TrEMBL record:
KW ATP-binding (keyword) present: yes
Name the record gives this protein: Dynein regulatory complex protein 11 isoform X4
Region of interest: Disordered: 189-230, 299-333, 648-679
Pfam families membership: AAA, IQ
Membrane-traversing stretches: none
Gene designation per UniProt: IQCA1
Length: 679
């Protein structure tokens, strides 16, 4: 190193040494001064340990009591429902154990299912090998015996029953050969009579049917007026009775002690598979016996086979009827195009959209606990959000999710969701598609504006949409702001959009939808009172009025939002305060306020700095609530609809008997008072 660098290193080390010595010296001076101060305080005596202990005890006991009081206060608030319980979002040990048991149960179920599937094939093959030849021989012997008996009674061999009529099942249905021959002859005579009398009786029958229908309608109305509304018998009752009877016959008195692990029962499988094997063998035997009967007729009776000719005639008649029906159906404007190409075109045109993954349980809301109290004071309460969720499940999710339910339950082709902005109408549409796995078509006036112009273009659009919807069912056709389609008077600003394009076509489309088509038209509207009521209610016969949330629903929503983000409120403003202060605001307003406040940075600070009501209410106050006047407009509009009128009529009928009883009591009181005065 250079001479200057060596000098600099020596200077640095020397200054450091001097600094250490100075620091040690200053430390000694500080300690001496501290000892002198303590000696002055105690007058030269040692410190009083008892006084120090009492001082420490005071502070500690005060701290412990403060914590205990806070805990008692917190428990009281949790008990009253004012605060959420601690560790509410965390999964408890019992729940985790239940989830593990559920997972194990699913694994065992899958294992048993695989074993059951293998057993079905193995047992069926074994039955076919072991019992198949015996079944075949016994069937052939019984059918030959039937041939001989018919020949002996009628003097000729009978005609073998068609496969459509059941084949040899007709022979084995505990009927004598005479009865079977008589039935076959009667069927032929009926077919001949029907073909002759169709033209003559057509007009008279139609007139009679019309008169009969009118009489039935009038009788129904009279009975309803006399007896009041009565629930119609359910279409599912016979299925439930059949299932109940099957349970009683098979499972009620069955001994299951040997089958602790709940594996398949070989005897039950044998009973089911024996029927299948017998049916398969019966079809083979029918073919053999038809040929044998043909040979017998040729050899003994010298008769020609008349069965083929009659079969051809029946087929020709069937094809004619089919052609007539086809002429009534609407023409397919895209017969040469595949469903994939139509699907692609609709997606590219923005008419077929991807629904958001939202569950129905995400639509947070509670039941109206004050409904009965309000009715006692002659105030009709608005429906609760839990009622809305239930109706969406009944009218939308269950019929679209199951073909059997859709065919047997009352057919709902169109559904209207009406309510102020922000109550979750679009969310319910997306939840409906998510829960059922349905395709979502968007035919809102704003979405179809400028697409497929003209009358022919509109017909092509509707043909494509409903063709794809029926082929790829279940499907939901959503019409947003549907009041625009039924405007009384179109505003000048919206005339270019042609919002009333679908008005004439919607009733025709609804008529074309049948019970087997799992297609639901869902309309959403924030201003239903702008639409022409009569055509509007003809299309949307089921209306769900969605109100702004009540106190219970707002409480549940605030709790859900705050806990979902992993936050907690400070102890002074509780969730109940927020629920009370946000009266009049919708779910959309509340969620928007929470999203604006709960940014990523604010969420990270929640553990150190809990949320305050001032923060949330500040964001909420910048929005306009739903005022009472707007809610009254929705109530008044709903009262004018057919559903509203029917509801009002039912309520009036329910109140009339109560009023009559009240009048009787008042008369009795007055009579008693008069008698008392006379005495």
């Amino acid at each position: 190193m250079t001479f200057e660098e060596a000098i600099r290193i020596i200077q640095i080390s020397e200054r450091a040494r001097q600094g250490r010595i100075r620091a040690e010296f200053m430390k000694q001076i500080y300690l001496e001064e501290k000892r002198e101060r303590q000696a002055r305080l105690h007058g030269g005596k040692s410190p009083n340990l008892d006084a120090s202990a009492v001082c420490i005890q005071k502070v500690w006991r005060g701290y412990i009591q403060m914590k205990r009081t806070e805990k008692i206060r917190e428990e009281e608030m949790i008990f009253l429902g004012m605060n959420p319980p601690p560790h509410f979002p965390r999964i408890s040990a019992s729940l985790m154990q239940a989830q593990r048991v559920e997972a194990m149960r699913c694994e065992v179920q899958e294992k048993h299912k695989e074993e059951y599937k293998k057993a079905l094939v193995a047992i069926k093959n074994r039955l076919r090998e072991m019992e198949g030849p015996d079944i075949k021989e016994s069937l052939q012997e019984q059918i030959r015996q039937w041939f001989i008996e018919c020949r002996h009674i009628t003097g000729k061999f009978p005609d073998y029953p068609d496969e459509e009529d059941g084949g040899s099942i007709v022979i084995f249905s505990q009927k004598t050969p005479e009865q079977v021959a008589a039935e076959l002859a009667a069927k032929e005579e009926e077919l001949q009579k029907k073909s002759k009398d169709k033209g003559k009786k057509g007009k008279k029958e139609k007139e009679k049917k019309k008169k009969g229908k009118e009489k039935e309608k009038q009788e129904k109305k009279d009975n309803e007026e006399k007896e009041g509304w009565k629930m119609a018998p359910s279409n599912f009752l016979p299925i439930m009775e059949e299932g109940n009877n099957w349970y009683k016959d098979v499972w009620q008195h069955r001994e299951e002690g040997w089958n602790f692990h709940q594996e398949y029962d070989p005897e039950l499988v044998k009973e089911e598979k024996r029927k299948e094997v017998k049916e398969e063998i019966r079809v083979q035997v029918d073919e053999l016996m038809r040929q044998e009967l043909k040979n017998l007729k040729l050899a003994v009776d010298r008769e020609k086979d008349k069965k083929k000719r009659s079969g051809k005639k029946k087929k020709k008649k069937g094809t004619k009827g089919g052609k007539k029906k086809k002429s009534k159906k609407e023409k397919d404007l895209t017969p040469d195009r595949t469903i994939d190409s139509l699907y692609k075109e609709l997606v590219e045109g923005g008419l077929l959209i991807k629904p958001k993954t939202v569950k129905l349980s995400d639509y947070v809301g509670e039941y109206s606990y004050l409904g009965t109290t309000l009715r006692q004071v002659d105030i009709e309460p608005m429906p609760s959000l839990a009622d809305v969720r239930q109706l969406i499940a009944l009218y939308g999710i269950l019929p679209l999710g199951s073909q059997a339910l859709h065919e047997k339950s009352p057919l709902v082709k169109a559904l209207l969701l009406a309510g102020p902005a922000g109550v979750g109408k679009k969310m319910l549409v997306h939840a409906l598609c998510t829960e059922t796995g349905a395709n979502l078509f968007n035919l809102s006036a704003s979405n179809i504006a400028g697409k497929y112009p003209g009358k022919s273009g509109l017909q092509m659009l509707l043909n494509m949409v409903f063709k794809v919807a029926k082929q790829l069912q279940p499907s939901v056709v959503w019409i947003g702001d549907t009041e625009k389609t039924f405007y009384k008077k179109v505003p000048k600003a919206e005339k270019e959009m042609e919002p009333k394009r679908l008005k004439k076509n919607l009733p025709r489309i609804l008529k074309s939808l049948k019970a087997e088509d799992r297609v639901l038209i869902v309309g959403t509207t924030t201003r239903p009172f702008d639409a022409d009521l009569r055509p509007f209610c003809k299309v949307y016969k089921k209306i769900i009025l969605i109100p702004r949330p009540d106190y219970a629903s707002r409480f549940a929503l605030w709790k859900h939002i705050i806990l979902q983000n992993g936050g907690s409120l400070s102890k002074s403003p509780t969730i109940s305060c927020l629920a009370k202060m946000s009266d009049g605001f919708t779910q959309g307003h509340i969620i928007y306020a929470a999203q604006t406040i709960l940014s990523e940075r604010r969420i990270r600070q929640l553990n150190r700095k809990p949320l305050t009501a001032v923060e949330l209410m500040g964001a909420l106050a910048r929005q306009d609530p739903v005022y009472k006047e707007e809610e009254d407009m929705f109530k008044a509009w709903y009262a004018k609809t057919p559903l509203g009128k029917a509801r009002a009529k039912a309520l009036m009928e329910g109140e009339e008997p109560g009023k009559a009883k009240g009048k009787g009591k008042d008369k009795g009181k007055k009579k008693g008072e008069k008698k008392g005065k006379k005495k």
